[in-house]
Structure formats: structure tokens, C-alpha cells
Design goal:
Mean pLDDT: 90
Largest sheet: 5 strands, mixed
Low-confidence stretches: 301-308
Radius of gyration: 20 Å
Order of helices and strands: EHEEHEEEHEHEHEHEHEEEEEHH
Helix content: 25-40%
Number of helices: 9
Strand order of the largest sheet: 4-1-3-2-5
Shape: globular
Structural class: alpha/beta
Length: about 300
């Protein structure tokens, strides 16, 4: 069986004519048997793709040919089966949505902290540490002493920070997220708000867990990831969480024993969040998934247009 390469990447770089790159990237990926999603915006590129080694390399080469993307970096993992059903190249206002207008995220690389220096930075009593992830992510793991904004969307972060700043005094700020993209955007936002002494963890939590020995680590718990692993621990070992495929939150074995848990339909976190109409749609989707599995097939759901 051919090993599938999964590559996750992002790059903040000014792309004023980003829409013109959509057809070429889509054609390249489809010709190479690569699937996944690539987001293009005026501020850069973000995505995850999977396919054979040669195909993934070809798409990454095409991405590196975009203006300002020659030094594009990516994280690789490997699987026996492609986790994606089709290839999409989407045009967006932002590659990660903050919703505050123009911020110069491409300059945030000036404020990196390498993983091996992170412990010293966040142990400084004059530094506040802010977790820029959503509440369900923070709920399964975080750095010691980090502030949890308790946001349900990254769009909520600017309003939270402005209120926090009105109520608290601080000298220095250190921020982190899963893989780096949200904290790069957050650093740019804080700088646009006049906060100059702000840094972020290069490569995010994942790079820290990959490179910092567990015995030296200040990370506590597991890290939620947006793929089939659900969560990982030190050395990126698979974690202990499953996922509710209705609300997409991480769930434990205890959650799955709850009467509120119905596979693909609800869990204790979302049992009261959806209308009966939505629950019926979830139930039909789960039924089709199970029927496809019984036939030895993969359920692909609604077919999206190539432009989506």
C-alpha cells in the first residue's frame, strides 16, 4: 500500500492578486492525485493536503512559487488512507478569520520565540501568557498559568482582549496556539492596538510538544488537533480523546457513556444546542456513513463545487 503524505501549512504574505492563482493550484493538485483544502486570501495561504509523495511535493512547489512564499514551511504526517474526499481551493477574505480589518500578520515573524526558549519566557513574572484557542481546545490542555479567554470563535478574541486590557495592567505578553497561525494573527492585532512587547511561540504547541522533552515541559494535558487524531501529547503521540461529529468537540470515554451521547448526533456538550431538524439531518448522515462502511465504501456526503 502506498503511504499517504499529509502536509499542513500556512504563510502570511501579501497576495493582492490571490484569485488568479486558484485555477492553477487546483489543476496541479487534481493532476497529481492530491486532495485537501487550500485557502487563498490577500494576506496569504493556509491549508492541508494529502496524497502520494511526488504529488504533494509538486503542489508544495507550486505554493512556494506564489509571491512571498518561497520560504513556505509545512508539517508532515503519514497515513495509509487519504483523509480527504476531494480537492478544494477556496478564496477567502482572511486565511484565519479575526474580523478586524487589515493587520500586518506577515511581520509577526519578528516576534517568534523558539520552543526551547519558551519556558523561560512564560516563567517571567512580568509576562502574561494568553491562549488564543477556543474554549473546547483549552479545556483538554494548556500551558501552566496561561489565561483562557473562554472564546468560542477566534473572531471573539479582539473584543475579549480590548475588555481585558481595560481591566488589567501588564508589561509583556506571550501568546500561543495549536500550530502558529492564530497567534501570528493575534500578535499583529495586538501591535495594531499599540502593544509592542508581545511575542508568540514559533510553530505553536505542536512544535513545542515535538521538540521539548516531557520532563522539561510546562504543558499540561493534551492538545486538540483538527484531524482524525483528535488530540496528541508529548512527542505528538496519539491522545485519549474521541470527537463528537455533531459539534466537533473532543469527548472522553465518560462522555460517550452519557445518555446524551448518540454517535454522530449529539454528546453531553451539544445535546441542547441543535434543533430537532438538525438532529434529524445528523441522524441521516450517520445512517449513510454506517451503510457505506458496511459496503466497504467511504461516505463522501454532499458534493461541493470546485470553487468552494
Amino acid at each position: 500500500m502506498t503511504e499517504i503524505v499529509v502536509a499542513a501549512f500556512y504563510k502570511f504574505a501579501p497576495l493582492p492578486g490571490f484569485a488568479e492563482h486558484q485555477p492553477g493550484l487546483l489543476a496541479c493538485a487534481e493532476q497529481q492525485g492530491v486532495r485537501g483544502t487550500i485557502l487563498l486570501a490577500a494576506e496569504g495561504v493556509n491549508g492541508t493536503i494529502a496524497g502520494p509523495r511526488e504529488g504533494v511535493d509538486a503542489v508544495l512547489t507550486a505554493l512556494k512559487a506564489l509571491p512571498g512564499c518561497a520560504d513556505l514551511e509545512w508539517k508532515e504526517s503519514y497515513t495509509d488512507e487519504n483523509p480527504f474526499l476531494r480537492m478544494k481551493v477556496r478564496l477567502k477574505k482572511e486565511i484565519v478569520t479575526l474580523g478586524v480589518g487589515d493587520v500586518e500578520a506577515h511581520k509577526s515573524h519578528e516576534r517568534y520565540v523558539e520552543p526551547h526558549d519558551w519556558n523561560k519566557v512564560i516563567s517571567d513574572p512580568d509576562t502574561i501568557v494568553i491562549d488564543t484557542r477556543n474554549d473546547y481546545e483549552v479545556g483538554i490542555g494548556a500551558f501552566e498559568g496561561a489565561i483562557d479567554p473562554k472564546t468560542t470563535s477566534f473572531r471573539d478574541f479582539p473584543a475579549w482582549f480590548r475588555k481585558f486590557r481595560e481591566e488589567h495592567q501588564f508589561k509583556k505578553v506571550a501568546m500561543y496556539c495549536t500550530g502558529g497561525i492564530r497567534c501570528e494573527k493575534s500578535v499583529a492585532f495586538l501591535r495594531s492596538e499599540g502593544v509592542e512587547d508581545v511575542v508568540h511561540l514559533k510553530g505553536g504547541i505542536l512544535k513545542y510538544l515535538e521538540t521539548v522533552p516531557e520532563e522539561e515541559s510546562l504543558w499540561r494535558g493534551e492538545c486538540f488537533v483538527f484531524d482524525q487524531r483528535v488530540s496528541v501529547g508529548h512527542d505528538l503521540a496519539p491522545g485519549s480523546y474521541d470527537q463528537c461529529f455533531a459539534c466537533r468537540r473532543p469527548i472522553t470515554e465518560e462522555d460517550k457513556a452519557s445518555p446524551h451521547y448518540v454517535a454522530g448526533i449529539s454528546c453531553p456538550h451539544c445535546a441542547d444546542e441543535y434543533s430537532e431538524e438538525k438532529r434529524q439531518r445528523f441522524a441521516e448522515r450517520q445512517k449513510q456513513i454506517e451503510l457505506a462502511k458496511a459496503r466497504g465504501e467511504q461516505h463522501i456526503g454532499k458534493k461541493l463545487s470546485k470553487a468552494e
